Amino acid sequence: LSAETGDSCGDPRAHSWLDDAEQVLFELFGYDAAKKRELSDAMLQTCQVCFDEKLGAAFEEFGQCGHRFCEDCVKEMIRVHVQSGQVTDICCPRVDCRKGVAAAVVERLLGSDFYKKWYRLQVKAIVQATPSLVFCPRCERYGDETPVLPMERDGNADAALAVCDKCGYSFCPLCRESYHPASQCVQQGE
User: Fold this and answer.
1) Most buried of the four, 93, 97, 150, 174, by CB within 10 Å?
2) Strands in the chain per DSSP E
């Protein structure tokens, strides 16, 4: 027998038909996960929120943690929190978990209008938690709220600078006027 493969051992039986073993392994794991989900979707499960028994296909993965609850409960929980403006309180109902909901779950269950409201409230909560954030005045004029994190220039608070990543506008984060490094901001003393 002659080895027609380029294998270093010279044994034709050692030739792999796999071009990319890593890709094949990735596909096997994906196939395994899909089969497990298919089996789970066909079995009766009990929702840990409403305690109703439903087919697994009626369950929704909450998000970051992977815990599953019936779609009706997840949808209603998110809807109530978004309507009340308490989006930072949306977390996994399991007491031992409490991880946040995935954005894709919010959009899939509640549609784009509620998703946009949820997203705006999430950004607002982040901005409120970061008091140094300011909004670009140029973007605001065009109806867009673009948060900008100001930077201090060489430790000099008089020369505080904010540059919008979206439109490139350089402005003073204190008075929100055009950047004025040569003069002290009128808002500085307030």
Assistant:
1) 174
2) 44-46, 53-55, 59-61, 68-70, 134-135, 147-148, 151-153, 156-163, 170-171
Q: pLDDT digits over 134-177, tens only?
A: 889 999 999 888 889 888 656 555 568 999 999 999 999 888 89
State the number of CA atoms in the 13 A half-sphere of 25 facing the CB. 3
Identify the CA nearest to 101 among candidates 126, 68, 124, 147. Answer: 68
User: ∠ at Cα 105 (99, 111), nearest 5°?
Assistant: 140
For the chain, the average pLDDT equals: 84
- Altogether, the residues listed in the chain come to a count of 190
Name residue 141's beta-bridge partners.
none
CB of 69 closer than 8 Å to CB of 93 = yes
